Amino acid sequence: MKTINEIGYKKGLKFFLYSVYEVIIHRFLNHLLYFPIFRKISLQLVGASIGNLTQIMDVKFFNWHHRGPGGLKIGNECFIGDETLIDLYDSVVIGNQVTIAQRVTMLTHLNVGYQNHPLQKYFPKQSKPINLEDGCVVGASATILPGVTVGKESFIAAGSVVTADIPPNSLYAGVPAKLVRKIR
Question: pTM of the predicted model, to two decimals?
Fold first, then answer.
């Protein structure tokens, strides 16, 4: 009941409905959704905007009950690899020809727990959108934190943790991600 009191009945109902959707998609239709076109269609049916020739592999979404699939916008000719986690607490905008490798994590919010958690005063709940601009690449197992914009045609190396905006035409790597070199 504590959760419902904090998020409200409307978000609680949305959480329940999207949880049922996830179970149906990942437990019962996974064999059918092995084909990326069916994943794309299923996401479009619940409100996501996805461009032409985009392939979405076995991607997991969470926090549907906040911004939800309506906040997910993916451009044309994109690829999102298996086991990628995308937080839909806030919006996620992915430009055209973006490649996201396997096991990437994209977080749009920070929340340490319930409103009375002792760390709330030090780490207040917040959310910020993520924006991946045209032609960028995110390497396997990278993590992108809330509020980050990855600039046009930039490359994030595998395993990097992106804590701040990445300028266009750059290669960034490390924890936290730092400039390795400009591409152009």
Answer: 0.84
